[in-house]
Structures are given as structure tokens and as C-alpha cells.
Design brief:
This protein is of the alpha+beta class. The chain is 28% helix and 15% strand.
Length: 211
């Protein structure tokens, strides 16, 4: 909505219609059977009006091929919604049917609870994690760290995570031991070198010394 000359922005959740599955260059309809959706080699999310997003931008990922691939998870999510919500393409990706048959949505509090439960079940508390320090935002920070640890540069991280500034660097923790893995060993290897700085003087074509 508009208020004077200023536009009131409001984040909208991704809907089924914002998802595009592809098998190679061929688009797989969201109404296709699950067996077909699981053959997708990539998936695209078209941004409507999400935080930090420009309307019409896309987030695209290729299928990793393993069972935990986000593309396969998204295929299951879309198929579940289309099967239980009358093929309504405007249904939010967070929608689900509760045990009593009512239509519900996954909330931020649900994600927070799931993250904290995962930390506890994985035994991470004994490794220094505190449940009060983790939340749904930890997934965003963890994604930035994962990309950095796999060697992706700053521009790629910003693009893939849709950051418009370098504030994401606050998520890159220098105390992570993986950053310095092998660093000391590499620095201890002597490398012969020559200083190729320009000499103080040289001789021109007439034989006269030039400073």
C-alpha cells in the first residue's frame, strides 16, 4: 500500500507459484506427480517481496543429487501442499495440515524450537553451544560460514544470501579452527625468490648513466 509518496513495504512468504522446477531445460509443472518433481535437476525461487530482495529476482540452485538435496526437499514440500490444498498455487510454502485437519503455517517460533532441539539432540551443548545463543537466525549465519569455509568469495556469498552490504562479515567467525588449517605448515615451507625491483640507475642508448 501507498502512504503519501512513500511505499509501505511488507515481506511476503514464498508461494507455490514462486517455485519453478527444471529437468535440464525442461520445466516440470508444480502439479506433476512427486516422482516427476524428484527428477528436477534444479529449482528456482522467484522473489515477490521478500526481505532484502528486489521484485523479480531469482534464487537458483542445482540439485546436489543426494537425499538431503534442498531441491528434493522443496519437491516434497510442493507436492505435499498441492496434494492437501486443492492444487492452489497461491498457498504459502509454510502451510501444512495439523492433526485436527486445520490449516496451519510454520512460524518463526517453530523454527527456533526445531533449531534448539537439534542442538540438544546432536550433543552440541557439551561442545560449547548454549541454547540461548541459537535461533532461526543461526541458519542464516551458518549458511554464510558454510560458504566461506568451502572457499567461496565475498561477492558470491553476498549474491547467494542476498546481502546488499558487507554486514554479513559479522557472521564469519575468525576463531573457527578450519580457517587456519594447514596455514602454519604452508608458512614454514621456504620459497626461493628474487627481488625484481627496478635498479637505482640504468644506461640509455647513448651510454650515459641516467638516475
Amino acid at each position: 500500500t501507498w502512504s503519501g509518496h512513500k511505499q509501505k513495504r511488507r515481506t511476503k512468504q514464498f508461494q507455490v507459484k514462486n517455485v519453478i522446477f527444471r529437468n535440464g531445460q525442461h520445466i516440470i509443472p508444480n502439479t506433476a506427480p512427486l516422482s516427476q518433481l524428484l527428477k528436477a535437476t534444479s529449482a528456482t525461487l522467484v522473489i515477490d517481496n521478500q526481505k532484502n530482495g528486489i521484485r523479480g529476482q531469482c534464487i537458483h540452485h542445482q540439485c546436489s543429487g543426494n537425499a538431503n538435496s534442498p531441491v528434493k526437499s522443496l519437491a516434497h514440500r510442493v507436492h505435499n501442499i498441492m496434494s492437501n490444498f486443492n492444487n492452489n498455487q497461491s498457498t504459502c510454502l509454510s502451510a501444512y495440515l495439523a492433526l485436527d485437519g486445520s490449516q496451519q503455517h510454520v512460524l518463526a517460533s517453530d523454527i527456533n524450537h526445531a533449531v534448539k532441539r537439534a542442538v540438544a539432540q546432536l550433543g552440541l551443548i557439551a561442545k560449547g553451544f548454549n541454547l540461548t545463543d541459537v535461533s532461526s537466525h543461526s541458519l542464516r549465519a551458518g549458511g554464510a560460514m558454510a560458504l566461506k569455509l568451502h572457499g567461496y568469495d565475498r561477492d558470491t556469498i553476498k549474491k547467494m544470501r542476498r546481502w546488499s552490504s558487507d554486514t554479513f562479515l559479522t557472521y564469519i567467525h575468525e576463531q573457527i579452527s578450519a580457517f587456519s588449517k594447514g596455514l602454519a605448515a604452508a608458512m614454514s615451507i621456504p620459497i626461493p625468490f628474487h627481488n625484481i625491483a627496478a635498479p637505482l640507475s640504468f644506461t640509455n642508448t647513448t651510454g650515459a648513466a641516467v638516475a
